[in-house]
Amino acid sequence: MEKKWIDEKSVETLEFVRLFEYIKSVSKIIGEKKAWEILKNNILERRIRWLEGNKDKIDPTLSELEKLRQVLILKLGAKPEELGVSKKDSDKIIIRSNNFCPILTACKILEWDPKRICKIVCEGAAREFLLKVNPGVGFKFTKTRPHSKYCEEVIKLL
User: How many domains does the chain have?
Assistant: First the structure.
């Protein structure tokens, strides 16, 4: 019998499909808002653990905004060009992401709107995660795939 191997991206996508289906079931018991909040907090906890073990990888010579972008690149395992800078000034950087996204793919499989899931879960987790790197930062999504050709994130120093 021939073994079939699936790549890491497929595994990650399937994990999110299962997780989202679980959240949908749990939300019938504890409410949708609470279920998604628990997932957001879980994602945040994992990101914080990752940050604690990887702070030494952040280039101290970068500007504060570039450090925040670098943290996203490192955490997401993306290539720098996949999280490209579309605009940057002294207090704000706009990033256009076209990296692989297991959440986007899982939403496609489930026929859900990724914009809604990203707003509920990902934006808050990313904002709180970046606050651990720099407590004076704001973060928001302004565009999401597939509604746009790319996802767009704004990181702003407050």
Answer: 1
pLDDT, mean over the chain: 94
| Identity of the residue numbered 88 | K
pTM summary value? 0.88
Which domain CATH number covers 100? Answer: 3.30.1380
pLDDT of 3 over the 70 cut = no
- Taking the C-alpha atoms of residue 52 and residue 38, their distance in angstroms, rounded to an integer, is 21
DSSP annotation of 56: G
- Domain assignment present for 84: yes
The helix or strand, by DSSP H or E, that contains position 104, with its residue range, turns out to be helix 102-110
**Run of H or E including 150:** none
Residue 46 carries which DSSP code? H
Q: Is residue 92 part of a domain?
A: yes
- The token pair at 55 is 């702070």
pLDDT at 9: 82
Q: Which domain holds residue 142?
A: 8-157
Residue 1 lies in a domain: no
